[in-house]
Design a protein that fits this description.
- By secondary structure, the protein is an all-alpha fold.
- It is built from three helices and no strands.
- The protein has a domain of 37 residues.
- It starts with 7 loop residues before the first helix and ends with a helix.
Length: 76
């Protein structure tokens, strides 16, 4: 068995650097879950996963116009 000389301060510094590198890998770029969810939704919208938004206001307005015009025609 071959015994190699150890430089304890250098070994300790190398170990501390490895620990710091490992901890940096677990760091999160978001401080809250809301920030993460907002970024996730924006990324998915950019990919086109959610499709185009449907304009429900125009549909509701059109339906009201047809109902009112039908009611006016029945009265006249």
């Amino acid at each position: 068995m071959l015994i190699t000389p150890h430089n304890e301060p250098a070994d300790l510094n190398a170990l501390e650097a490895a620990v710091a590198t490992t901890r940096a890998g677990f760091a999160c770029m978001f401080s809250t879950s809301d920030e993460y969810e907002d970024a996730l939704v924006m990324a998915r919208r950019a990919e086109g996963r959610y499709g185009s938004p449907f304009d429900w206001h125009a549909l509701l307005l059109t339906g009201c116009v047809f109902i009112l015009s039908g009611a006016l025609l029945m009265v006249l």
